[in-house]
Amino acid sequence: MSMQADHGEPDAEIARAKKILAKAEASESRYRDLKGGWRAVLIALTLASILLALDQLMNLHLTGRAILANSYLYALCGMLTSGAFLIMPAGPKAPRDRVPWYDAILFLVMMAVFLFFSFNGQRIAEEGWEYSAPTFVVAVAVVGWVLVLEALRRAGGTAVFAVTALFSFYPVVAGIMPGPIAGFPQDFPTTAAYHFASSESVVGIPTQAFGELVIGFVMFGAALQFTGAAPFFNNIAFALFGGVRGGPAKVAIFASGLMGSVSGSVVSNVLTTGVVTIPAMKRTGFRPAYAGGVEACASTGGVLMPPVMGATAFVMASFLGIPYVSIAIAAAIPSLLYYFGLFVQIDGYAARHGLKGLPREELPSIRATFAEGWHYVLVFVALVWMLVVLQRESLAPFYATAVLLVINQFIRQYRLDWQRLGKLVVGIGGALVELSALLAGVGLIIGSLSVTGLAGTLANDLVFMAGNNVYVLLVMGALTSFIFGMGMTITACYIFLAIVLAPSLVQAGFDPLAVHLFMMYWGMVSFITPPVALGAFVAAGIAGAPPMKVGFEAVKLGATMYIVPFLFVLNPALILNGSAYDVVWAVVTGFIGIYLAGCALEGWLGGVGDFRRSPVGWLARLILAAGGILLALPGGGGHIPYGHVELTVAGLVLAGAAVTLVRLTARSRPAGA
Question: Which residues are bridge partners to 604 per DSSP?
């Protein structure tokens, strides 16, 4: 039961936020509202793809025989990637209430292309079609190439389409490119055949990760949202934090962190939790722009928060060839540092402005909330147990979803009837179709770099361009991740950088897992950083504040996101890779350093008070921030010339100097000044 329904929260702000949400969903949704026969087709394709995945992952052999891995992936793409033409209009003026004839044709042709390759999976492996395909196969591959790019455009937008299209044609002109980006050229027929017949392109690592890991978690996330998880997360957050100083903003951290981890989408996270948290923040005294910035930062961080972390983490596991659990464990401390920094700034802001929490009578009961939503906790525990203890990464989300749906049928409020079940399947189908089209399309980049050999030489060239300076290379990596993050989804951005940039950073001596997490973090930065700042701009609509103002508030509030990636990539102790001594020291000083840096950003330190009241408060804040960063910086690790003790002592000295400066200037000021 939602907080509003339980406690009659003032209707004006909530009603306004919900109107904005409805308007945003109606005007910005890229999905068609399918009716009748086409809706039945999408439901059938969704159920068939899930059944196919279960058959492959559990070796059920429902078809009477084992299916080759490549045939499975082609069939999965045939059912899902082709669905992009059904649910996503070609442009803003294309029909949204029906499937036009040309999209129906494109859907059927694309499905036929993938099914052709699926039925010929054995011949592809035996006859080496990737380099010596028959003429007819090349023609089919060319048609598929064009259609995959168009599906990618609809799923990922113009920017990711343009980059991918250029890279997909790169093999044809690789021989005439300048030195650093030259590769072994391939003619057009070979390029087309390689894109579709090899295991390095359309059905390469991204699609393999989708078919083996991602599909189950997308289904689990959709099932959670359709069975009422969002109200439960909101209510439990309000019950725990709603009444404390700055409570509604702290609620946003908790609720958005949980929802974002499952949904993997910043925008949907803002729209889901922001309609409750932003009005509550404004009610208790937070400025609208600040409230929007808090929600944008909280929702962005959710994608970085274990245990699920969205689809990107599973693609990362495939790239690195390690269990997903290893990535989730490594990401735990960095994500907690990010949220801790956000929490510290919010608490300081609330303290400076004397902001209280919501009245206790308006907050949901924690006992009643758990009584209504205990099954979500049970399902999460079961999921984590299967992931960590049983290490059944592929099947864990399927089992968790089954448990959730069975228990859900005993909960009257969210019980699924045929109509709601249909909406659930359509919702799962839409998410699977969009992600499948995106991953199949971006796979073309991998294929181009693979067939030309550029993937192996580009790393050396980037290291050379950086003058063998690892710090320059890191900054180049951060800026590149940020720029690509502005125009791509985080998954597409990560895949591109994992191919192009990660090898050079690893070659420079950085930990491979730290490098990949570094790129994921910096790819997320664009969601809160103007000029794009998509998460902040969506939050601005709910908050009723100028978008750019919300964006700049989010930059300040999310400052930890810019810092933390450099900390763990310079010394992987913060991702729990190192001796027990290094890890414990790095984690403890990391939290202390982030606390001091957050206090400096907000200008408030517990026991000292408001730095802004001192005439030299700005200087003290700079010194305190420098001390915090030195404390947070892990010593040693090969890339930092100073050890833990030296950095800790230097950080404490600077922090002490900042506090002393504020206290001395405060004492010297006349009374009442």
Answer: 610
Residues 6+ apart with CB under 8 A from 588: none
Within 8 A by CB and 6+ apart from 37, the residues are: none
- Residue 78 CA to residue 112 CA, distance in Å, equals 7
Helix (H) or strand (E) holding 3: helix 3-7
- Tokens 């989804």 correspond to what residue? 489
Helix (H, G, I), strand (E, B) or coil at 9: coil
DSSP state of 389: T
Check if the beta carbon of residue 190 is closer than 8 Å to that of residue 448. Answer: no
pLDDT at res. 9:
47
**Secondary structure of 614-660 in the HEC alphabet?**
CCCHHHHHHHHHHHHHHHHCCCCCCCCCCCHHHHHHHHHHHHHHHHH
Residue 174, amino acid = A
Give me the half-sphere count of Cα atoms (radius 13 Å) on the Cβ side of residue 302. 30
| pLDDT at 246 (0 to 100) | 87
Which pLDDT belongs to residue 277? Answer: 87
The alpha carbon of 406 is separated from its chain's Cα centroid by a whole number of angstroms, namely 29
Cβ atoms < 10 Å from Cβ of 62:
12
Q: What is the DSSP letter of 604?
A: E
| Residue 372: predicted pLDDT | 81
How far apart (Å, rounded) are the C-alpha atoms in residues 326 and 283?
A: 42
| Structural domain count, the chain | 1
The answer to whether the CB of 499 falls within 8 A of the CB of 446 is yes
The residue count of the chain comes to 673
- The token duo for 104 is 């129906």
On the question of a cis peptide bond just before residue 531, with omega within 30 degrees of 0, the verdict is yes
State the alpha helices, DSSP H only, in 284-323: 288-302, 312-320
User: Looking at the domain assignment, is residue 650 inside a domain?
Assistant: yes
Which residue numbers in the chain have pLDDT < 50?
1-9, 24-28, 668-673
Burial degree of 133 (CB within 10 A; 0-12, 13-18, 19+): buried
The C-alpha atoms of residue 427 and residue 66 are separated, in whole angstroms, by: 30
Tokens representing 490 are 């985080």
In a domain, 341, yes or no: no
Which distant-in-sequence residues (6+ apart) come within 8 Å of 370 by Cβ? 236, 377
* Confidence at residue 14, expressed as pLDDT on a 0 to 100 scale: 54
Question: Is residue 23 situated within a structural domain?
Answer: no
Strands (DSSP E) contained in 70-162 are: none
Coil/strand/helix, residue 29: coil
The identity of residue 232, as a single letter, is F
CA distance 24 to 33: 15
Structural domain span for residue 606: 578-673
441: left (phi over 0), alpha (psi -120 to 50) or beta: alpha
Q: In the block, which residue shows the tokens 């303290």?
A: 351
CA distance 568 to 639: 11
Specify if 163 maps to a domain.
Answer: no
